[in-house]
Amino acid sequence: MCGIVGFVDKNITDKKPVIEAMMDTIKHRGPNSSGELLDGDAALGFRRLSIIDISSGMQPIYNEDRSKAVIFNGEIYNYKDVRKDLKKAGHVFTTDTDTEVLLHGFEEWGIEGLLKKIRGMFAFVIYDLKTGDITGARDFFGIKPLYYYNREGTFIFGSEIKSFLKEPNFKKELNKAALKPYLTFQYSALNETFFKNVFRIPEGHYFTYKNGKLSIKKYWDMSFKENNLSFEETVKRIDKSIRESVNEHSISDVPVGSLLSSGVDSSYVTAVLKPQHTYSIDFDTSTYEEGTAAKMLADKLGLENTRGIVTKEEAVKSIPLIQYYMDEPDSNPSCIPLYFLTKLASKDVTVILSGEGADELFAGYANYGFHSHSKVIRVVAEDLKHLPKGVKYKLAHGLKKLPNFPGRLHLYESTAKAEEFFIGQAKIFNEKEAADLVKPEFEKSRSVKDIVMRSYSKVSGYSDEVKKMQYLDLHQFMSNDILLKADRMSMANSMELRVPFLDKEVAKVAAGIPTKYLLNSKDSKYALRVAAERALPKEWAKREKLGFPVPIRDWIKTKEVYEQFRDLFSADFAAEFFDQDAILKMLDGCYRGENDDRRKVWTIYTFLIWYKVFFIDDGKKPDVDPKVLVN
Question: Which CDD domains does this UniProt record tie to the protein (predicted)?
Answer without folding.
Answer: Asn_synthase_B_C (cd01991), AsnB (cd00712)
